[in-house]
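Good morning,

Attaching, inline, the backbone tokens for the sequence recovery test we're adding to the shared suite. The designed sequence is right after.
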């Protein structure tokens, strides 16, 4: 039985669809309902020649220098569902199912590739090149969930964005194709979306699919038709219309509103899956303006607040959004893996659970608390606009 990919959604809006010369990026991370996602920061670092980096399942060669990154990640693994680096690059991952079964052998997870792309790429294209090179060298595979009873495996798709352009990268095993985006609104989800517009690809991609009998070489090469099961690739993406209706006014608030929309299915709340964390990033095309990244760090964006983060010289860690560390005793690191499931809730997650309980059990107090929190969120959004305005005035 093929695993069902969680219905996550990623978006990017470029001028002229977005406001004030901004690139606006957003993602809802749908994961198993009880999984805890944390927000973590890692400073830029230099590494000794020959050093290694231990990813979720395998160890690979480290590079001489890694960029500062802020990540939203399932707290049991090394990589990330989504994040940003100090150069204004944002990357998000989607689990996808293709006609080629994903490998259960432990290799790099799609989430590992998100973090590696951010740590090693100063532009979206550099991050793309990092991800595909590592994919070709190490492959992808291993359990996507903290589940000792079953191995849930997927292929990976990515949305990679910087101030100037975005790349949609879709993969099956070590094979891949990518499309470059520089304008308009784009959405990707847990289904393949690349068709005949391919701007970069694995050099052996077409030979491989021809050898498998999936493409005869005579018709136009359509990536999603070749690699999708049945017509899966035809039904994506609910939230795009909402953003397109904004005309030229897609803003951070508009992206947040789309991510909160349960009626469209973008905000996932099902028996199996929940939107366990969300991000919205605002990337001014003018490099003299700072990028601002908003993280929830808690589930269900319709009941969570987006909190701003800006890369500065002296970032202070926030322990309240970091899960407890279990070191080498972590059941995710011991072989066989996932024999136990420790309590990974961080302080913010616990506070969110309390607030959710209040909303459900005392409607008046719950709604009052939600109004207060939304007001704080609005102040954060206004403060961001003020920072950009003051930067403009100073210039």
């Amino acid at each position: 039985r093929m695993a069902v990919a969680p219905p996550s959604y990623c978006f990017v809006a470029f001028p002229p669809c977005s406001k004030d010369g901004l690139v606006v990026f957003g993602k809802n991370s749908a994961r198993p309902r009880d999984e805890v996602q944390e927000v973590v920061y890692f400073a830029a670092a230099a590494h000794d020649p020959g050093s290694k980096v231990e990813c979720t399942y395998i160890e690979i060669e480290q590079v001489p220098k890694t960029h500062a990154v802020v990540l939203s990640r399932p707290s049991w693994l090394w990589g990330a569902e989504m994040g940003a680096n100090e150069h204004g690059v944002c990357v998000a991952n989607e689990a996808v199912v293709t006609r080629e079964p994903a490998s259960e052998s432990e290799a790099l997870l799609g989430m590992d590739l998100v973090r590696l792309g951010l740590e090693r790429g100063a532009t979206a294209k550099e991050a793309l090149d990092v991800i595909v090179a590592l994919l070709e060298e190490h492959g992808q595979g291993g359990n996507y969930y903290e589940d000792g009873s079953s191995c849930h495996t997927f292929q990976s798709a990515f949305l990679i964005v910087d101030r100037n352009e975005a790349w949609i990268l879709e993969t099956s095993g070590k094979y891949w194709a990518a499309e470059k985006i520089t304008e308009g609104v784009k959405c990707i989800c847990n289904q393949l979306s690349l068709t005949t517009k391919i701007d970069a690809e694995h050099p052996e991609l077409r030979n491989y699919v021809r050898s498998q009998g999936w493409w005869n070489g005579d018709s136009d090469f359509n990536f999603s038709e070749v690699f999708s099961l049945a017509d899966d690739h035809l039904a994506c993406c609910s939230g795009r219309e909402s953003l397109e209706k904004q005309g030229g006014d897609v803003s951070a608030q508009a992206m947040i509103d789309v991510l909160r929309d349960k009626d469209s299915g973008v905000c996932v709340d099902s028996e199996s899956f929940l939107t366990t964390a969300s991000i919205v990033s605002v990337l001014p095309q003018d490099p003299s303006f700072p990028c601002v990244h908003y993280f929830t760090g808690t589930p269900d964006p319709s009941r969570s607040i987006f909190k701003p983060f800006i890369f500065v010289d002296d970032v202070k860690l926030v322990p309240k959004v970091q899960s407890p560390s279990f070191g080498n005793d972590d059941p995710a690191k011991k072989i066989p893996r996932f024999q136990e499931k420790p309590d990974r809730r961080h302080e913010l997650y616990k506070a969110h659970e309390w607030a959710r309980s209040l909303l459900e059990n005392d409607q008046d107090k719950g709604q009052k608390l939600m109004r207060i929190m939304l007001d704080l969120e609005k102040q954060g959004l206004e403060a961001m606009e003020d920072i950009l305005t003051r930067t403009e005035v100073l210039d």
